[in-house]
Amino acid sequence: MAVGLAACGSSGSGGSPATSASASPAAPKQRVATDNPIAMETLIAVGEKPACSLWASPKYVPLLAKYLDGIIDLGQRVDGTVFNIDALAKCRPDVILMGAEDPDVMTTIGKVGKVVEFVQPNPPISADGSAGSTWRNWLHAAASPVGATEKAHAITATVDLQEGALKGLLRGKSLAVVETESTSAYEVVNKYLPLAWTYVRDLGIENYQATAADYDAGCLDDKKPKPCYSTDLSMETLPALSGVDGVLVQSAGMSSSDLDVFKANPLFANLPAVKSGHVSVAKSFTDTGPIGVSFLLDEIADAFHVKEFHAALGSGGRAHLAVDPAANKLCWSVSPTPGTSKPDGTIKIAAGGTTVKLADKATFAPAETEYQTTPPTVFSTGCAPVAPKLAQALMASPADAKLTAVGGSGSLVPGAASVVVG
């Protein structure tokens, strides 16, 4: 299975982020060290880049490569002390944001800087006993100690905007995560692994799971949710995936030549989803920090041949569009500036010499999340068929297209808006 760098952390319950009772939130702009890639990624996204961190190398977190300048790499985890204590001391951290450890270990590390516990329930369990949003909980658990809660809310709203449009096209589809173990073996994930829980909970996609016999005991028990990989499965079992609509392939730890052998195996290559091109391949999708979640959503959209666009509207509003060019269907998610009273409910798209009114009296509501900006961010989502000419114009020249909504208008930019707000 993939090395769970981005999925490490305690597995307790609790629906909201917390810090240890003995440590108060750290002041912004202090020198922060962390032992956790999710915390490091969150600090980058909210503009509080840590001074040093474990795993701060493109070798371990390639998705963060362009953000790592200025972060001292403390190497890998050290048994018994977590950090190389001498290297940590040279970093001179004011605050050390880390997962729970043995009290003696925490005391040793606490001699270097103030320790703030990074609590990562996996998944978080809400008051009603249901599983909450893992990535949102982790985002806020890491942002809160550095005084960046409002920035974390803004990041949440950006992802909510993207998901609002994608959900209209992807809800009800099925997806399998295939972790390549060798040229002749693979694993699949249960729905509570953070990467799968993101698309199951947020997009309404069904996660493919193997039989209970292929997992450790309790992995398919919804009454006690826990994240799991299956045991190693032989290639002969791949036909069980024939009914899935799309496949994500994780190839961490496998050479490109071995991956080619795996993909060329007829048992994989002849899966209907693979033959239709509904596949996305990456070293790992397990990074469920804010940057990783946005990447995951982009890759899922790509696997299903959905094209994404975002727009900044002249009124201060924002929009995300998802287009299925094969089905000539467009879904949107628009949001006015938080606090806007009675936003304009007219939504129009102009492209290729054609203007289409998508909505005349759009209604707006907050996203279904406990993490909310102040004032609240509200959204309007919907889908509509569009003429092939308009869909083709959007694909060919998005910069020439114009979306009008919430009292403003703007050109389309391919892809999703950045979640790095700092």
TrEMBL record:
Cell compartment(s), UniProt: Cell envelope
Major localization class: other
Bias type Low complexity, positions: 8-28
SUPFAM superfamilies assigned to the protein according to its UniProt record, in alphabetical order: Helical backbone' metal receptor
Signal sequence bounds: none
Record-annotated Fe/B12 periplasmic-binding domain positions: 81-283
Keyword Ligase: no
Keyword check for tRNA-binding: no
UniProt KW keywords: Signal, Transport
InterPro entries for this protein: ABC_transptr_periplasmic_BD (IPR002491), Bact_iron-sidero_bind (IPR051313)
Gene Ontology annotations of biological process type: iron coordination entity transport
Region annotation Disordered: where it falls in the sequence: 8-32
GO cellular component, one term: outer membrane-bounded periplasmic space
Pfam families for this protein: Peripla_BP_2
Protein family membership: Belongs to the bacterial solute-binding protein 8 family.
PANTHER family for this protein: IRON III DICITRATE-BINDING PERIPLASMIC PROTEIN, IRON(3+)-HYDROXAMATE-BINDING PROTEIN FHUD
Protein name (database record): ABC-type Fe3+-hydroxamate transport system, periplasmic component
